[in-house]
TrEMBL record:
One of its GO terms (biological process) is phosphatidic acid biosynthetic process. Signal peptide: none annotated. SMART domains: PlsC. Keywords: Acyltransferase, Transferase. This is 1-acyl-sn-glycerol-3-phosphate acyltransferase. InterPro entries: Plipid/glycerol_acylTrfase. Residues 35-145 form the Phospholipid/glycerol acyltransferase domain. One of its GO terms (molecular function) is 1-acylglycerol-3-phosphate O-acyltransferase activity.
Amino acid sequence: MFFTFMRGVVRVVLFIINGNAHYEKKDRIPQNENYILVAPHRTWWEPLYLAVGGSPKKFSFMAKKELFKNPFLRFILKHANAFPVDREKPGPSAIKTPVKTLKSTDLSLVMFPSGTRHSSELKGGVALIAKMAKVKIVPAVYQGPLSLKDLFKRRRVTVRFGEPIDVSDIAKMDKEGIAEVERRLQTSFDSLDQEIDPNFNYEVKK
């Protein structure tokens, strides 16, 4: 209930701030099963657009543990289905918690395999979670304003969803298996970027 309420609030706030969002190929999203929604991490508001674009599906999120130190923010995060992860020392719970959620609840998972906004390197976590939870990976990309100033200028925001990636054919998530999942993901990300605007350039802010 709280997640649905908060997503409604976020939808209104994003419309007031920008009002120029376009969600493309939503028909590719699985309807009656959990999945992991993944995207390259380009802005801090990108997860908000993904959560809105993936509606009516509800999601859980990984969030760095430091955010949970603030009592007010911790309350919001927990009720928005977020769980803490130590980015320096992830530990087994970083895999076990989302796997359990995907298998035993109606919540899908939003995840950024690159880990941070300033990294293009894919991590193996999404591959392991998908394999253990027996769910598909749905790639998506965000193209739009990369600064808050440009977002307020109501410049176009596009979120495009890709075809689900099935990892059930990969026997083991060893080094080679994880590399294959990462290859499929990156290929999909590149294709989606080309489909939206091949001239889009994500510039890493130093």
